[in-house]
Amino acid sequence: MTQTAEKTDLAQIGVVGLAVMGSNLARNFARNGNTVAVYNRSPEKTRALIAEHGEEGHFIPSETVEDFVASLERPRKAIIMVQAGKATDAVINQLADAMDEGDIIIDGGNALFTDTIRREKEVAAKGRHFVGAGISGGEEGALNGPSIMPGGPAESWETLGPILESIAANVDGTPCVTHIGPDGAGHFVKMVHNGIEYADMQVIGEAYQLLRYGAGLEPAEIAEIFREWNSGDLDSYLIEITAEVLAQKDPETGAPLVDVIVDAAGQKGTGRWTAINGLELGVPITGIAESVFARALSSSTAQRVAAQEGQLPSGTIKQLDVDKAEFIEDVRRGLYAAKLIAYSQGFDEIKAGSEEFGWDVDPRDLATIWRGGCIIRAKFLDRIREAYDNNADLPALILDPYFKGELEGLIDPWRRVVVAATQLGLPAPVFASSLAYYDSLRAERLPAALIQGQRDFFGAHTFKRVDREGTFHIEWSGDRSLTES
What we know:
Blueprint: E1 13-16, H1 20-31, E2 36-39, H2 43-53, E3 59-62, H3 65-70, E4 77-80, H4 86-98, E5 104-107, H5 113-125, E6 129-136, H6 138-144, E7 147-150, H7 154-165, E8 170-171, E9 174-175, H8 185-214, H9 219-229, H10 237-247, H11 257-260, H12 270-281, H13 286-298, H14 301-309, H15 324-357, H16 363-369, H17 381-390, H18 401-408, H19 411-424, H20 429-442, H21 448-459, E10 472-474, E11 482-484
Parallel strand pairs: 1-2, 1-4, 2-3, 4-5, 5-6
Antiparallel strand pairs: 6-7, 8-9, 10-11
Helix pairs in contact: 1-6, 8-12, 8-13, 8-15, 9-10, 12-13, 13-20, 15-19, 15-20, 16-17
């Protein structure tokens, strides 16, 4: 292979923004037989990519947007991998001005889906196509095969489909990419994917905390437990890498790496967006929301220090009084249950968003393309796909017969874990909130009846009755008679 294609050649795809993700994506395209146009605002990164990886395929480097656009075959296809926000808008405008009718601009970053809806309208007004594409898998996925969630016009998918399929992860002969739906559908689905990821990571962290400080195990021992778990129902990318992280020693001190990492988790916004949108749609994504709050609390360093220095009372902390092996198995089963809730809540939000925005997102497609390349890939995604194959209108994923059967064997250990965490004084917000969500779903009566009574008392908000139709109010400040609105 030559470093760069001849100038008479044209590229099938272009990549703008050559930080690690963009560079790896460009290399992935080139490795899979595509001629790739590459451009970065600072040309040093373009030159570095060609110098270090030019032998991996055909690249056409450019140092101006105009040259970059001229190097693309029609309809031109350019994927943007730059910082979300104003930088993305600036590049979109540059490309749209330099391109022609029918050309396609793809935003592969983690954009807020409402921004994608706006951008799609603005670009369409100029006669160009705009595609918001969620790309999951991190740096490794970008290079070796990500899960890709493109939205935008169906016409764009007809052009983009083959080239995206050439670089996506592949499971059982099926590429992990499909057209999600119009305008912001792709970025919306990627947002919720990341929300599920937040909950999954948090509840894994809670399981580690329970094993470490409840069962008294060392990180290396817990690493072996997670490796064993990864061979069963919990088989997933996040369980796999958790074992690797826990087994890692700090190269400088030899201490477990997890002990020298500051316990303040960062976030880039997608989990928070998922929680906010869940509230806006009225979808109870409690496990996801708790995971976002847990990261925020972990980073509330000044408050945490003040609470420790002020010695907030703990109450009576009990020691673990069950067999250690039994406790480990309870944590495994509880973790499995809480993970199922995270996925179920995520699919609920996607269903609600699809209905709200008219996207017609198919949950079976998501279960299929999330099986490879992405951060939340997991063994039970095959079961999720089967669940929606059997009933596309499932009220909730956990009501599928298979998952309902699984939960029968998980619920008692899950309850024991939440009780143990409380007695041990160990925070387990996703374990606990997911269980509360589960019990709320199955409860015959909820305290919402009392809340409606309170709302009627102080604000005359009215209520409905269980014994007949209509809307009613009690004359609280008068004779307390019942009136019908």
